[in-house]
Every structure is written in structure tokens, then in C-alpha cells.
Amino acid sequence: xxxxxxxxxxxxxxxxxxxxxxxxxxxxxxxxxxxxxxxxxxxxxxxxxxxxxxxxxxxxxxxxxxxxxxxxxxxxxxxxxxxxxxxxxxxxxxxxxxxxxxxxxxxxxxxxxxxxxxxxxxxxxxxxxxxxxxxxxxxx
Length: 140
What we know:
By secondary structure, the protein is mainly β. Helix content is 0%, strand content 43%. It has a six-stranded antiparallel β-sheet with strand order 8-7-13-4-5-12, with no helix packed on it. Strands 1-3-2 form a three-stranded antiparallel β-sheet, with no helix packed on it. Strand 9 (105-107) and strand 10 (110-112) form a beta hairpin. The protein has two domains: 11-47, no CATH class; 52-139, Elongation Factor Tu (Ef-tu), domain 3. The protein has strands at residues 11-13, 26-28, 31-35, 60-69, 74-79, 83-84, 88-93, 96-101, 105-107, 110-112, 114-115, 120-124, 134-139.
């Protein structure tokens, strides 16, 4: 299926930036832009690549743990889907599963009530978590 974000080009549309500032952008026959994150630059989307783990089909995978900070009891997450304060989350790692309610989101040391897909955020977690642990949304 052709990617609806980049219209099959693999290059996400970007605002016109001229001069040396645009030297880092890739150029395609459709113009300049950055690699489309929806299809990873392939021009088509394979929905099978974006499914959750089979044992958690009823829950939405929203991201994974990049780093855990023990002194602060916080985890840095890389998100694939949006996240809101008040969501019930499930952490799945080597130690098992832990369910909790999200009380706050921090982005660059600023408190936020929402975080969007593609962002790296910090959240407070109830127990130590392993790097690479998956985060699932149980309810909104």
C-alpha cells in the first residue's frame, strides 16, 4: 500500500528552506524534504511491521524504554504513538508486567499533558525497568 504521508515518494514534505540550511535534506524528484517516518523512506507502508506483540493484541504499544534513571525513578521513552496524562499504562520487561496510571510527562525538563508520536519523553515509573522494555496503553 502506498504511503499516505509522503504519497509514495519516501520523502516527507518539508517547508521550503533555501541556501546552506537545506544541505542536510535529501532531494527527490518530488522536491526536498526529510525521510518519511511513516514508511521509513520506502514509499509504501507495511502494516504488519506496525503491529503489537501477539501476547498483547488487545493493548496498543506506544513505545519503548530508552534509559532508566534510578535516582529519579523515571524512564526515558521513545514513543510510536501519542500519550496523555491519565492513561493507564503497562510496562513489560524481563522482571514481568507492571500496570500504573501516568501522572506526568516531561519533555526537555518541561511538564506536558500530552506527547506525540516520535517524541522522546521522561515519565515517572513505579519500579526499575529494563532498557528496551515495551510500554502498552491499557486505557485512555
